[in-house]
């Protein structure tokens, strides 16, 4: 009964002893193992990150995702969970949401565990005023010009990837997946700015060994700065 009570109010008990690691010291090994079996798997990541790799993380993975895709090849279940949750957040983000997105709180949680990140899609969105135009005088006219001078683009990946300093392998696909009848070429067009975001971030990921960009519409002139960065980035082994 006590373990069930702790499980239902885990965030309260954990905060009283600073984090769940301290709570572990207060329980017997048998009680701690039992607690990991009954803890809810939908707790905030900022809290559950303190739980050491255990059956809890295997259960969390299989409850959140289909069992068929939860096959652990290497690493740990905790690492698998962190990498998949990071992937899902990035794949659902839109450029218009980035100002409200608290990258540091997520990044600090993921940093230690995300070693291999596979981004299967990046959502494109119209970004007003992203191109340089000559504005006419008058606020209404300027706002109109901003809309006309906009273009489609992706999120600034650097805002998130810059926090993942222990990442070793990165796969990216610029564009939406499963478009179906909504297919448009503009959803796959990569701007020079999108490549520049990546080029500026890579030097800050000190352990990156593999970088692959898959099925993306990228021209030579767009990725010039990225190639220049990669040529001087010594840890990289494969692109």
UniProtKB/TrEMBL annotation:
SUPFAM superfamilies: RNI-like (SSF52047). This is T-complex-associated testis-expressed protein 1. It comes from Cacopsylla melanoneura.
């Amino acid at each position: 009964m006590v373990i069930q009570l702790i499980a239902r109010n885990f965030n309260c008990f954990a905060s009283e002893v600073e984090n769940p690691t301290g709570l572990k010291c207060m329980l017997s090994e048998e009680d701690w193992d039992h607690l990991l079996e009954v803890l809810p798997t939908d707790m905030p990541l900022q809290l559950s990150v303190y739980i050491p790799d255990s059956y809890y993380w295997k259960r969390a993975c299989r409850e959140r995702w289909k069992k068929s895709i939860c096959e652990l090849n290497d690493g740990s279940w905790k690492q698998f969970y962190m990498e998949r949750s990071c992937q899902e957040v990035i794949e659902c983000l839109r450029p218009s949401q980035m100002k409200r997105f608290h990258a540091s709180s997520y990044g600090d949680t993921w940093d230690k565990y995300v070693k291999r990140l596979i981004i299967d899609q990046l959502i494109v969105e119209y970004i007003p005023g992203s191109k340089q135009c000559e504005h006419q005088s008058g606020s209404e006219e300027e706002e109109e010009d901003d809309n006309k001078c906009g273009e489609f683009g992706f999120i600034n990946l650097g805002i998130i990837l810059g926090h993942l300093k222990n990442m070793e392998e990165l796969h990216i696909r610029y564009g939406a997946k499963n478009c179906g009848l909504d297919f448009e070429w503009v959803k796959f067009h990569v701007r020079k700015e999108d490549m520049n975001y990546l080029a500026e971030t890579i030097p800050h990921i000190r352990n990156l060994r593999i970088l692959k960009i898959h099925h993306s519409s990228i021209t030579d002139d767009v990725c010039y700065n990225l190639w220049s960065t990669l040529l001087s980035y010594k840890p990289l082994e494969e692109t």
